[in-house]
Amino acid sequence: MATTTLERPAATTPAKPAPTDQQVQAYLSTGLRNRWYPILPSRFVETGGKPLGITRLGEKLVLWRDATGTIRVQADRCPHRAVPLSRGINEGDRLRCNYHGVEVGPDGKVLAVPGQPGCPLEGKKAVKTYPSFELANAIFVWFGDALHEEAPPFTPPEQLSSPEYSNFLCYADWGTPWRYAFDNLMDPMHGTYLHAVSHTMYQGDTKAQFATRDTPKGFFFEKTGQRDVNFDWSELVDDNALYVRLEIPYPPAGGPGGNFAIIGFGTPIDTDKMCVFFWRVRKVSGWQRDVWRFLYKTNIEERHWHVLEQDREILDGLKPGLEKHEMLYQHDAGIIRMRRYLAQQARMQLTELQQAGKL
What we know:
- By secondary structure, the protein is α+β, with helices and mostly antiparallel strands.
- It folds into two domains: about 30-145, Rieske Iron-sulfur Protein (3-layer Sandwich), CATH 2.102.10; about 160-345, Naphthalene 1,2-dioxygenase Alpha Subunit, Chain A, domain 1.
- About 20% of the residues lie in helices and about 25% in strands.
- A seven-stranded antiparallel β-sheet has the order 11-17-16-15-14-13-12.
- Helix 1 packs across helix 6 and helix 3 (about 180-185) packs antiparallel against helix 6 (about 335-355).
- The longest helix is centred in the last third of the chain and has 30 residues, at about 285-315.
- This is Aromatic ring-hydroxylating dioxygenase subunit alpha.
- It comes from Pseudolabrys taiwanensis.
- One of its GO terms (molecular function) is metal ion binding.
- Keywords: 2Fe-2S, Dioxygenase, Iron, Iron-sulfur, Metal-binding, Oxidoreductase.
- Pfam families: Rieske, VanA_C.
């Protein structure tokens, strides 16, 4: 009589658990990856000047310009002994580490090891190099995860790229987690109270109802029944870069150009600090452009810095985790939606990294 044997089932790899809420929030604490971020005003890095070391999204970076003026952004770490390359020397076409003279090219390749010519380190691409470009007087960098190191194109808002607009960049470091600055931008109602003494935000009802409106790359959060009176709406945009667009109405004394627009980016430094990039914009050309720029520098800029300082003082020193103490209401619907969206994006990235074995 023939005997049969039970076949063992094929071995299967157990499914990895989905990212927890705690893991998602920890991942977001230093920024959402796979996005372009402004990291510094262009004027901070001079052609042929000393390399500059900064931290963005929790990563140590070295910035330098080669002899042609092209910006270079790399990991701030010599591949030999891991000391900061920002303490080295800009040789025009490469960085030379001050510790042992190791030379690194703009693509991250080790070009020379003077102490041991011909050693295996030479010719090796050993320093991470970040995709970067410059726009509207700022340096932008792609922060991709392990699966998205190649940068997609960035289509900037027309307010920063079209000659029909004139803009001024306002840059500042803030002692607050980056997401609280985005919360602030997606909260139009705070303008009615915090900025009530501002020459552009003293009008309008102190009560309001809000609604959301979808766009192809984000959503509007706007007051119903009030427009072009105060800080009446915000638009969250996520188009390979995360930023907020808003407008403030201007009195005739503010000069030509209609409403005053702000394009706001917030770039994490680490878990507790960030830097803001606010482009103040008006749609002007010809002689009106010259009038607007003159009025801004002589009469308006100081007032805008005062408004910005009010925001900074409110947010300064906040630490992650305040959400558990909040009691939100209808005015906060834009913040709630944005937070959910960011958590969703972070969860998707973490899941993809887990499945690819990159965590």
